[in-house]
Each structure stands twice: as structure tokens, then as C-alpha cells.
What we know:
The complex is a heterodimer of chains A (380) and B (212).
Chain A: H1 10-13, H2 19-24, H3 38-42, H4 48-60, H5 66-74, H6 83-93, H7 101-123, H8 132-144, H9 158-174, H10 184-187, H11 189-200, H12 217-235, H13 247-263, H14 265-273, H15 278-287, H16 296-309, H17 314-328, H18 330-333, H19 338-346, H20 355-372
Helix pairs in contact in A: 5-6, 5-16, 6-11, 7-9, 7-12, 8-9, 9-12, 11-12, 13-14, 13-15, 13-17, 16-17, 16-20, 17-20
Chain B: E1 9-16, H1 23-32, E2 45-53, E3 59-67, H2 74-77, E4 86-92, H3 96-100, H4 102-112, E5 118-124, H5 126-131, H6 140-149, E6 153-156, H7 165-188
Parallel strand pairs in B: 1-3, 1-4, 4-5, 5-6
Antiparallel strand pairs in B: 2-3
The structure holds guanosine-5'-triphosphate (GTP) and magnesium ion.
Amino acid sequence: MWSDPSAGRSASLAAPPSSSAQAASGPTPGTSDPGPSSSSSSGPPKKPLVKLQRFGACFAKEAVDLNELRELLWSGVPDEADPSVRAKAWQLMLGYLPVHVERQVTGLSKKRREYRELVKDYFERSPEMRSDNENQILRQIRVDIPRTNPGFKFFGDAVMHGIMERTLFIWALRNPASGYVQGINDLITPFLVVFLASYLNKRDEDLHELEISEVPSEVLEHIEADAYWCLSKMLADIQDHYTFGQPGIQRMVLRLKEIVKRIDEALYDHLTNNGLEFLQFSFRWMNCFLMREFPMRCVIRLWDTYIAEQASGFSNFHVYVCAVFLVYWAPQLKMMDFQQMMLFMQKFPTEQWRPQQIETLLAEAYVLKSLFHSSPKHLS
Amino acid sequence: MAGQDEYDHLYKIILVGDATVGKTHLLSRYIKGTLPKAPTATIGVEFATRTVPLAVGGTVKAQIWDTAGQERYRAITSAHYRRAVGALLVYDVTKAQTFQNCTKWLEDLRNNAEPDIVVMVVGNKVDLVEKDPSLRQVPFEQAQAWAQSKSLMFYESSAVTSFNVKHIFEDLLQEIYTQRTKVKSDRYNDNSTQGGMQLRHNPPQRQAGCCT
Ligand SMILES: Nc1nc2c(ncn2[C@@H]2O[C@H](COP(=O)(O)OP(=O)(O)OP(=O)(O)O)[C@@H](O)[C@H]2O)c(=O)[nH]1
Ligand SMILES: [Mg+2]
């Protein structure tokens, strides 16, 4: 997974990715849609409408072709799409929603029943039966939940707190190697937002002021179960990010360091000469998958691609995204000293970013990864 | 930029202690004078600086690193202790466990920071026990005795009322300064730097309420 780029390629990487200038000047139609397959990167720029039709056709088949869906989702669900498209694509891609259309309804209700059983077994037991460890996990979850994504009003609502408390607690007990780790409360939020948007038929950007009391309780029950299962799938292969010593994250930080050294040595030297350590700024990028660095609309776009990459290890790809993100700021960073850089990196000026800028990052990260990996056909 | 960024001493200080004892709130209160607008659990480290004038003239610049409190992060957090000369070891006066864990935090500090690191123990959230004394789980005397037995400084504080917030940071800075100057002057036998070099030093208040 962490294979080194072959030595012969270093020459082509000596210069920073040429497209970083392009990224600075905003989204460029046509380059924002590389797709993991060779056919989509060479064709003419796709119109959102065409893409929407392709999603529709993909869902309309008797059995959804996950390879086709992966390719579509990788390059993002268009803004124009019905909010249910993204929810469905994510759930299919994560293996939660059955690919066979006639099994979808029963499949979902089975999973939701199963989740209700989990709630009974793990959560609704009498509190006296809980071990010290379980109580400690619950305490930690309870103090973190009110400190979750303040950008959406409903994350401050007691009903939503209940949903998060149950899902995170059950996830922690069923994954004892890691248990609950701060930041996992962030990772469930894109699922909650996207599934809410789907059920309410609203755009995620219109949910900021949503009152939970407007949402029927049956819908909330479904969202809770769906978010639980999807979070479980998303985190299934990255357990060692959250186990003792967080080896998975330490590996990613090291890898990021290597990649940046290769693609922008001047920046790398500037950082290290100023005494900046990669762990200092990139730990959070890894722990929360850049969620803390972008507004939710951008995180959701990022997750289209990450969910498409999930089966092949999205954390591997994530490191390239981080590298491109860091190098994107190289012109500013190179003008700063240690302290200025630390303060700048704590709060990158990304509040106004649109999903198109994420697409540019993703496109560059894709190119970069292909250069580093001997085989660009990384999707089996 | 350069003009306002002059200082005579640069000290790295770290904020450590269990999750949710209020480290980030204390830092925000000290640096910005307000509580965090959008509070979230700290992941990794957060960084802030403040330049503090010395009563004797000159300035100390504090480079303050706010760390994540959860147990799982400790292996990684301790990597940020390197070269720290001061630490605020924070617990929550309403949670006995957070005080008991101070022993572990101190051990981490001893193992990973500078050997002569100056440590200040801080019992935060005293505003809560002001309102309801039955909430107190860590008696003032007990924490003070423990700190004394380990030769650590000690205060109680509240990020919410600002009680002692300035003191915990600036008395720590002052102590670091005093110790460093003393060591230096001992080493070089330089009498000119001895004595009289003190930050403005108001006696700490034990009772909250007078300052908000
Ligand atoms: N009453 C009271 N509450 C406080 C005080 N300081 C912090 N809090 C509350 O305690 C909670 C945690 O505060 P933080 O500053 O985020 O705690 P932290 O130590 O930085 O926690 P981690 O980042 O998870 O390690 C928040 O809900 C604050 O509102 C205080 O002085 N008094
Ligand atoms: Mg904090």
C-alpha cells in the first residue's frame, strides 16, 4: 500500500504540479473531472446534465454496477442532482444499500431492524450493567457531541445529540480495538447531513438553519440507522488510525512528508528549516480527513471521491490530497516564519471555498498518485 | 510586523490535562479575552502566542501549545512537548478523576519536555463550585498539598469568569524567567541580572467573584 514511487520518476516530480497555479485561479472546466478511468479523462468536458443522466441510468438497472457507480461518484455528484442521488450513491458504494433493486427495500428495513437491536443490546441496558470503561467512553462522547460542527444549528439539538450518542457509543463498543476517539464525532456528520438532505429533499447548504423538530421521528430513526452503518463501513479498514499510538496516522504523516519532499523540495526545506514538523499541522488532517479544514459543502464533495475510493483504501489517496493541499499554499507559506505558518495553518482561509476547488485538488491528487504508483490502474 | 514582534525571551509553554477540563477555553480567554466562538475538541495541537511586558522592562514572548486531552492521543501529544520550558497542567475541580490523572500527565512531562520545565497545576472551572459547592470534588488544600509535594506551582481558575486566568499564564512566565535568569547568572556569576527582575505581580486571589 505504501509502495515507494520508482526512482526513475523523480525527475518528472522535481517541479511542483503545474496545475497549482490553475487551482489558484479557480476551477477550470474540463480538468475538474478526471475520473479514475482513462476514458473519462480523455473525453470532452461532461455537462452536469449528462452526468445526471448517467447516475439515473446507473440506478435504473436491475442490479447497480458498482464499477460504473464508482467512476461516476469519484468525479462527484453534480450540484443539480436531486439530494437523494448522493445519499443513494454513498449507501450503494459502501455496500449498505443492496445493488439488486428488488432487494433494496427489504435490505434496508432489515439493517434498520438490526440497528434497533443493537441499540437495545448496547445502549438501553441498565446503566448499572455498564463497565467502567463503557462509562468512560460514554462520558467522552457526551462531552464531545455538543462540541460538534457548530455550523449547523441542528447539531446543537438534544434530539440530534441522542442520535450521535447512540451511534458513536455502539460503534465504539463494537470496535473495542479503537473504541471512541475524539474526531470520530466529526466523521459521522457528513452522513447525517447528506441523509437528512435526501429525506427532506433539500440541498445540504439549505440545512444550516434546520430545526430538528421539523423532521418526522420516523425519518430520524432511518437516518440514525443509515448513518451508523455507513460510518461503520467507512471506518472498517482504517481501524489502526484510532488504536493505541495511532500507527495508521503516523504512517500517513510520514508518507505526506516524503511526498512533499519529492514534489516541492523548496517548500519542504522551508518548513523544516523553520522547525516546523509535519505532525504539528497534519495530524488533524489525517485524524479528521481534512474535515476541520473545509466547510461542509466541500467535505461532502471530498467524500464523494473518498467513498468511491473506499474499497481501494481511501486513506492512501487522502495523503495525496493532503500533499496537494499543502503545496497549494506554498506561495504564502514560503513568505512566512514559523509562527506565522503555525497560525496560518491552524485556520486556512477556506471558508469561501466551493466544491469546484475540491475537485481541482482531487484531480491533482489523482495525477500525483498515478505518478507515484507504478500502476495507474489502481482501481481493480 | 517586525516592529511589534520584538521580544527578549521566547518561551514555549504547553497546556496539558484530561479532555474537557477547559484548556482551550483558558487559552482563548487569555489570548482573545473571550471564550471560543465555535468550541470543538482539540485534535492534534493548537498554537497561539502572546508577548508579555516585564515590569523591569523588556518582554517575554509566550508560544503556547494547546494539546488534545484524550488518553488515546497521549502517545502522539507528547511529541509536542519537546523544548517546552513551561506547562499548565489543568484539571477540573468538579471531576476527581481529572485530578488523579495529573500524576500521569506529570510523568509524561518529565519524560518528554525539558528537564527543568516549570509546571503550574491549575484547577479549572471554580465558577461551578462558587454556584454550587457540592459540585467540588477536588479540595483546594488537597491539590495545593500535592502540587507542593512535587514542587509545582498551583492556582485555581475559571475560563468562564476569567478568574486567575491572567495569573496562571503570567506567573508561569515570570517563574520561567526568574529560574532561567538565575541559572544563567549562577552559571556566569553575573550579578547584574540578579534580583529585582519581576513581572508585575499581584497576589493571586483564592476566591472568585472580584474579577469577571
Ligand atoms: N463552567 C465552566 N466551564 C468551562 C470552563 N472552561 C471550560 N469549560 C467548559 O468545558 C468544556 C470543555 O472545554 P475545552 O476548553 O474545550 O476543554 P479542553 O480541555 O480543551 O478539551 P480537549 O480539547 O478535548 O482536550 C466546554 O464545554 C466549556 O464550556 C470554566 O472555567 N467553567
Ligand atoms: Mg481543547
